[in-house]
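note to self — DONT lose this again. spent like an hour looking for the file last time. sequence + predicted structure for the chain T wanted, 416 res
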Amino acid sequence: MPGSERGGEDEATGRLSRIGEVAAAVRTRVVVAHVANGERLAVGDSGHDRYFWLILNTYRVVTLLYAVVLYARVADEYLHPLGAWCVLAVMGLWTVTLLRWRRRDELVMIIDLVIATWAVLMTRVLDDPVRIAEGSQTLPTIWVSTTVLSWAVWRGWLAGLLAALVIAAADVIEVDGRMSGNTTNNIVMMILAGVVVGYNMTIFLAGRRDLARAAAIEAAARERERLAADIHDSVLQVLAYVRRRGHEAGGEAAEIAELAGEQEARLRSLIATGPGTTSTDGEQDLRALLTALSRGRITVTGPAGSVMLPGDVATAVVGAVGAALDNVARHAGPSARAWVFIEDEGGVVTVTVRDDGIGIPAGRLAEAESEGRLGVPMSIRARVENVGGSVEVTSRPGEGTEVELRVPRAGRRRTQ
């Protein structure tokens, strides 16, 4: 029946074309979802920053008013009272500028530090030397502490310490090196404030990054579940049908079956991991990534807690496990089941993929490699060995296949 066979092949080809369009649409939806999630996280981050600067700006206004009131009470004791009012006016203009100017870049922060230091040093020029020797307050008083806190919030405890030391040096110059108890206390308090606030800000930012990363992973997992539910009962079944019937028909249809199998594997991988969900930066929870592969005849078991690995190692393992499960679907038989076992052994993590399929005849892997079919060597072994791991394949005809992947927790690149 050549005509019917050709018609079947044309129908299969048409289905493959439609499947390709669906897969492309699915990929686009996943990318858009991840971009949208990233935008929401970015907006949230900037919102937190605005609150910090709003608090500091409020504190800056309060301390400015305090400096003005304090000076007004002793203005007649200054050598140059008009000059002191001018300094306070500059401080006021800068405060208003920061209230209206939300950006906090290097230039703004340096100008802030320069104005605070200048205001302290101007006390030496404008105030009575006798008052200075007696330990009187500097003209800006605690207004300069806002600069220290701003640097601490902006770049952490080291920046806060740097700003505190610069202003402390100005304090020492202002009293000509004759340190009073009041001056010493002010310097110590500024240094402590810069370090403590900066350190807590560093902890907060680290926690916020972890929260954003967790939110992104959760959003990606929800998107994978939704996509899996949408296409599992349609596209994947059609691909599996085309692959199975193509192998049964043989000839040119077998080539179409191979293409269908490849598209099925890619689509399953897309659903399981999604574009960009396994990053090579930072650490990833291998258990969570592999658990996403569990469905139907695939069971994933592992430790109760997270199994954290470097991003590149986790990505390699997930890719290798996906390839192994693809081999089960393509070669182990239509009723074969698969199990993925995760073992955390401290310095080494072992992942075993086991199936109850028809097994692999002795010498078949070497034969496939010699024929240029590099599924196991390239898709599994190369991935794992490239991050310093090892792969062991054990199989007997009729008893299924076991693929054991062992990777070091630290991960390392294989030397060429």
